[in-house]
Write a structure and sequence with these properties.
49% helix, Peroxidase, domain 1, Peroxidase, domain 2, metal-binding, oxidoreductase, binds protoporphyrin IX containing FE, 2 strands, disulfide bond, Haem_peroxidase, 15 helices, 331 residues, mainly alpha, binds 2-acetamido-2-deoxy-beta-D-glucopyranose
Length: 331
């Protein structure tokens, strides 16, 4: 009797083994199958409505998941508001006045709490919303592994330290991703996120005015028209929060134009530009060329890297909690 049960268990493991479990076995695809079967539909529907109202919201939701995962792991720490002694990650340099989409997450959580209270974590909402946002703007889709739990605290210092700055050198970007268990291929694929959404003047001013700032590459030097347009949006001082599209060609769509842009020296952020100008080995350049000429290859890599990013330092089992309100730890 005992033996048969073990056999059944082993069989289930084997059947599920290939597809359902993540590499580290912590997250699974069907986590809410019994406890909240409509979870994915509820998230998708809410994201659809939000993106219909504000197309840029798709980009903002993707970035929210990224900024969550790079600080203490994908644990929804980014969603916590300041409370008592704890300073919110929202106040940190890379996030303040820039990160958006919190109201959309609130709305999704509200809808989920109505359907299945205390069941779906805010961290899982971020992962599902990022996937739905990308696919709604024409990008790839992928299966999101689930079962993350929500942190009990935020890390303001972590947000300042671990989220890469737009004026980082290539070495710094590589080290930053490596710290999260992501390799150079992940860095290049995930940077393709800058195929939609917008950036503030603050984030790219140095690139368009400071001639000695980076090895700009001669392609960029010749793009005086591109630079003139950016300078008209963003004067040498002031208008810090004026916006420019990260992908000047197709800023509303998730496609592979980002890679064509950076090959022409027309990436907006310095961190986009360094991928092609500081890559002395040529490895990154080959990958950029491949993605620029083959969108399906980019999509496959992007999906793979998103799953990897979504598994960074997740809380599982009885770690953390399932928050009732994504902005606050349960009392
Ligand atoms: C490689 C290092 C990266 C750097 C230095 C970086 C930096 C930035 C900066 C400075 C902005 C503009 C913020 C502003 O001015 O308000 C931005 C926007 C954005 N980033 Fe990144 N990023 C990086 C990687 C990523 C990754 C890995 C993702 C997603 C997986 C991502 C997704 C986005 C999106 C979608 C936007 C547009 C957001 C919106 O329009 O609301 N970025 N990024
Ligand atoms: C990057 O930008 C920050 C803030 O704007 C500035 O303090 C720093 O000196 C810059 N770093 C480089 C390498 O230019």
């Amino acid at each position: 009797m005992e033996l048969t049960r073990i056999h059944c268990f082993v069989l289930v493991l084997i059947l599920h083994g290939t597809g359902t479990w993540s590499d580290d076995g912590l997250l699974v695809l069907d986590y809410y199958a019994e406890t909240c079967p409509l979870a994915q539909e509820i998230v998708q529907h809410s994201v659809e409505i939000a993106v219909l109202k504000d197309p840029r919201m798709a980009a903002s939701l993707l970035r929210l998941h990224f900024h969550d995962c790079f600080v203490m792991g994908c644990d929804a720490s980014v969603l916590l508001d300041s409370f008592g002694d704890m300073v919110s990650e929202k106040e940190a340099g890379p996030n303040l006045g820039s990160l958006r989409g919190f109201e959309v997450i609130d709305k999704i959580k509200y809808n989920l709490e109505k359907a299945c209270p205390y069941t779906v974590s805010c961290a899982d909402i971020l992962a599902m919303a990022a996937r739905d946002a990308v696919s709604l703007r024409g990008g790839p889709t992928w299966e999101v592994l689930l079962g993350r739990r929500d942190s009990l605290k935020a890390s303001f210092d972590g947000a300042n330290h671990f989220i890469p700055a737009p004026n980082s050198s290539l070495e710094t970007l590589i080290a930053n991703f490596d710290h999260q268990g992501l390799d150079v291929e992940d860095l290049v694929a995930l940077s393709g996120s800058h195929t939609f959404g917008k950036a503030r003047c603050l984030s790219f001013r140095q690139r368009i005015y400071d001639e000695n700032f980076q090895e700009q590459g001669d392609r960029y030097e010749r793009n005086t028209m591109f630079r003139r347009i950016l300078r008209s949006i963003c004067p040498q001082s002031g208008r810090d929060h004026a916006l420019a599209p990260l992908d000047f060609m197709t800023s509303a769509r998730f496609d592979n134009h980002y890679f064509n842009n950076i090959l022409q020296g027309k990436g907006l952020l310095p961190s986009d530009n360094v991928l092609v100008v500081q890559d002395h080995g040529g490895e990154i350049r080959r990958q950029v060329w491949a993605y620029a000429s083959n969108p399906q290859l980019f999509y496959a890599s992007f999906a793979k890297s998103m799953v990897k990013m979504g598994s960074i330092n997740v809380l599982v089992g009885d770690e953390g909690q399932i928050r009732k309100n994504c902005r606050f730890v349960n009392t």
